[in-house]
Write a structure and sequence with these properties.
Chain A: This is Response regulator. Chain A: Keywords: Cytoplasm, DNA-binding, Phosphoprotein, Transcription, Transcription regulation, Two-component regulatory system. The complex is a heterodimer of chains A (220) and B (445). Chain A has 8 helices and 13 strands. Chain A has 220 residues and is of the alpha/beta class. Chain B contains 9 helices and 13 strands. In chain B, the strands form 3 sheets. Chain B has a 6-stranded mixed β-sheet with strand order 1-3-2-6-5-4. Chain B has a 5-stranded mixed β-sheet with strand order 8-10-11-13-12. In chain B, strands 7-9 form a two-stranded antiparallel sheet.
Chain lengths: 220, 445
Amino acid sequence: MRLLIVEDDPVLSDGLRVGLGLSGFTADAVGTLADARAALRDSDFAGVVLDVMLPDGLGTTLLAEMRAAGQTLPVLLLTARDRVRDRVEGLDAGADDHLGKPFDLDELAARLRAMLRRHQGRARPLLHWNGIDLDPAALTATRDGAALRLSRREFAILHALVDQPGRILSRAQLEERLYGWQEDVESNTVEVHVHHLRAKLGRDVIQTVRGVGYRVAGAA
Amino acid sequence: MSIRLRLIVVLTLVTGVLWMSAVLWIAGSTRAQVERVLDARLAESANMVSSLISDQRIAVEAEGPVRVPMPATTDLSRQLSCQIWSLRGDLIGASQGAPDARMALTEGFSTTVIDGVPWRVYAVRNQQLGVRVMVGDRVDMRDGLVAGVVSGLLWPAAVLFPLLAGLIWLSVGRGLAPLAQLEAALRARRPDDLRPLPDARDPREIRPVRRALNRLFQQLDQIRRTERDFTAFAAHELKTPLAGLRIQAQVARRATDAATRDRALDAIAVSVDRSDRMVRQLLELAAIDHESAPSGPLDPAALIAEIVQEAQAQASAAQVRLVVRAGPLDLIHAPRVLMHSALRNLVENAIQHSPPGGQVTVSASRGASGLCLAVTDQGPGIAPEDRHRVTRRFWRGRAATGQGSGLGLAIVAAAVAHLGARLDLDAPDGGQTVRITLPVPSQRS
């Protein structure tokens, strides 16, 4: 799950990027509204973590712009003043959730997972597909009750495919989910991870659609 | 003393004095009128008696006084007395109630005191009979007449005066009603309600008061808004580093590799330093805002040397060279705390915005407009469109390094304002110069 972090404080921004990475997300960070607009225009994100006070304006302004443009991308607001009025203002501006600073990394990750889940119209936190269970919170996977040992990247690819069974994801889309801007992507990494996944799950689990990308079978 | 009471006292006193003057004036003119009329009557009566005795209608006997019948219809008339004296000096006749003593020695009008009672007398000589006819009335009777007129004026006054006072009370109350309404409107306000007073059809005298109040409300509202903004910013600026600390701590605990953990720990150290600086600056700002700094003799060169020394560690860490260009300067008389705050924050700011290997120059000179302290860096400079807001609290430039609190120049501006000095921002070719010009009245030591 690739997230955009809009936070101008370098220490917090860095902590969010690394911490959310440790929690199974891929996160990119920008520090201004202008950069956030550019990032949202150019890349595909599953959600946004948005600070309210930014050097060039209010996060809620960006939020209102997004909502006015019909973007339903889920947004979690980070607020410094965690008063009822601030929370109400944030939610009314179109935020899906909010968290007052300072916050716990685990709570942020859990709220983000819940937010993304709701956005996809799922209520259950676990994903099931053909006997495979994925727990995005714990980053663990089981097949028929037996634990699968997956790396973080492998889990992320499986998560992305199982999330919408039948949908074909291109290599570029998968790469985008896996890597932030600051990470170097080797040309064949997605293939390598898919190869490892097939070795662990069986050849036919992930189908290659030649020239397009990968998918898992549509029957859930 | 309330306006109402004051108005009532003034109005009542003025009305009373006017009334009394009117009464005195009327009393005076009445007296003159009464004198004239009564004198005419005296003369007329005397002439009439004289002609009656000439016609022999009243016998004047030589032996003794006769009764002169006087018409006795009113009190006033009864007090009219008549004497007839022979030219030799014998009393020939007198009216009833007339005094025994001779009422007049001369002819015409005269005033005589008989038995302690003053009389007004008119005497006429009847040459034919060789007598003098004298007709007189008592002066106190005349006074009584005037007193009657005056008391006729005073009694209604005594009754009407309280009535008038009551009317004044009521009309003053009515006249002051707009004030009372304004007062009620103000009293009914919640303390945090700083909206302008609603427009009402005020009398012209109240309008300036309402306008002044509205202006005051507006200023207060502005101050409160600024304070609220400040609180919001402060909350954000203080809680964000805390959030950073907490999350970096969690990253450090959870990191599986040493590099990630070390980065997180470094970030924590940086964040603690920044938070420390932020708290220090907030306290500094509060001190500048709320405390009065004592003035004293100050050596600008020594102050610069001291600040350069304090900032040396920061400069070394940022690989910035600090250069001082200042000759020996005269002592100035200024609050040391403010001068130190202003210059220290300027230098720190300049170092923060300097590229590694850059140079920060602190210069001081004495010019026509006063003492000029300038700090120049080789950083990106302040964009012209941002110049008006760099001194806002918590404002950070778009090219912010992320180290600043957004308070440095706000502190400088606050200190400069308290010093009565001027703050100028120039961007020479590359870099930024911030100049403080402190007016120095005359050479003082």
